[in-house]
Amino acid sequence: MPQWAGSSWYFLRYMDPHNNEALASEEALKYWSPVDWYNGGMEHTTLHLLYSRFWHKFLYDLGVVPTKEPYAKRTSHGMILGENGEKMSKSRGNVVNPDDIVNEYGADTMRLYEMFIGDFEKAAPWNPSSIRGCRRFIERFWNLQNILVDGDSIRPELESAFNKAIKKVGEDIENIKFNTAIAALMSLINDVTSFGSISKKELAVFAILLNPFSPHVTEEIWEVCKLGDGIVAEQSWPEYDESKCVEETIEIAVQVNGRIKAKINIAPDADQDNVLTLAKADENVAKAIDGMNIIKEIYVKGRIVNIVVKP
Length: 311
Prior knowledge:
alpha/beta; 4-stranded mixed β-sheet; extended; two-stranded parallel ribbon
């Protein structure tokens, strides 16, 4: 069936594509329905979602399909725009050929950049400089083998960084926040290179975390460095220790009459009295409240201190 008609129920046909007597058998529809997760382009959200739900509800009323709704979950991804911020089209001359990017930078760079370009659901302009940045990140990962040392555990100095990365990347993948997951890996590689070496266990964990985004280079490192049996894609996702994901200190702003006078580092679980004592001990804050009457002291936990004073 052509045009809107065909595109409005094709997912039902996928459930039983070789049936010559019905759009799908009753058994197949009961087994597969509804679609667990349906994702499509943002520009098709309104009409396609409208038509596909209309068709499905019509078929449900006829008793053809077993579920009232066609999908359990529906998401839309943003559009990749040209460098000029306009929709890519031949007439505008801003179309990017993925093959050219793959030929120049490699498939892993192309894959990584498309997931790093921005929030999943928002439109984002194509940026050649960011592509080169993704290529440099992959090269930095490849070069970790130059500082590789023996070791079958994550060393204490890097435990916090790795545990935070495992948690962040895993949660972000589940929530389709690929760009922030990749940012966490970029932060992790900075921690590793600053430390000056990486153990085999640490590199293995890093490879598993990066594999969904850059499968080719991670599989190559896995094999070249003999990091484990099988391939990276077969490995279990690393586990993290929640207690090692807690920030040792956090930075909060200190305001006097609504104006920031200082920033102090505190323990995340510090109580109000300790935080206020630290805030008032800061040199700039002390000057601002010297000789003044403190009218109110406000502490928003983990975020900000505000001291209200009058002469």
